[in-house]
User: Which sequence fits this backbone?
């Protein structure tokens, strides 16, 4: 074939270019043009710096402690027979994040889940609770004494199963100071 036409080209079609990068449309497009001024360059740099800062902040936020936002599937859990807990005892159940107490008036259970963001509050030797995440402090009954927590630790409902075991319902709360007699 002569005349500089490709196989499927007709004489009325313009000749095909070998190199598409030489297209004048690409050179005239502002999208592919390099920054014309220092101000354009600085604006582009600032935009990319903002994107990188946003990504870094998002990654950092993912490393923060996450609250326990989903309820547990089984809210009622057996804690064993009441006679195994002596008067004056305090027993921590880490898998359920709760404390079971027995005093002269009966049993009571306090959730160790901080009401601020769902971290697990630790119980100190003096009986007070402290959240390691954001510094909330609670008295031995779970009342807020400091920090960002908006409300007291939850007191959970207790009952006895038909087979005589103590049961805690993690979805049902009772008023502060309530005791369960077993």
Assistant:
């Amino acid at each position: 074939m002569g005349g500089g036409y490709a196989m499927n080209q007709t004489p009325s079609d313009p000749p095909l270019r070998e190199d598409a990068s030489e297209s004048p449309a690409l050179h005239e497009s502002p999208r592919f043009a390099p920054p014309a001024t220092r101000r354009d360059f600085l604006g582009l740099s600032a935009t990319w710096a903002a994107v990188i800062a946003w990504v870094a902040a998002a990654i950092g936020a993912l490393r923060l402690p996450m609250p326990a936002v989903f309820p547990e599937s089984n809210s009622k859990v057996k804690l064993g027979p009441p006679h195994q807990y002596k008067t004056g005892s305090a027993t921590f159940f880490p898998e359920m994040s709760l404390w079971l107490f027995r005093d002269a008036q009966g049993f009571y259970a306090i959730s160790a889940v901080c009401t601020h963001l769902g971290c697990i509050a630790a119980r100190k030797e003096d009986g007070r609770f402290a959240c390691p995440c954001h510094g909330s402090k609670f008295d031995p009954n779970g009342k807020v004494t400091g920090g960002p927590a908006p409300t007291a630790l939850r007191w959970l409902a207790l009952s006895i199963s038909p087979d005589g075991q103590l049961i805690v319902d993690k979805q049902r709360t009772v008023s502060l100071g309530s005791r369960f007699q077993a």
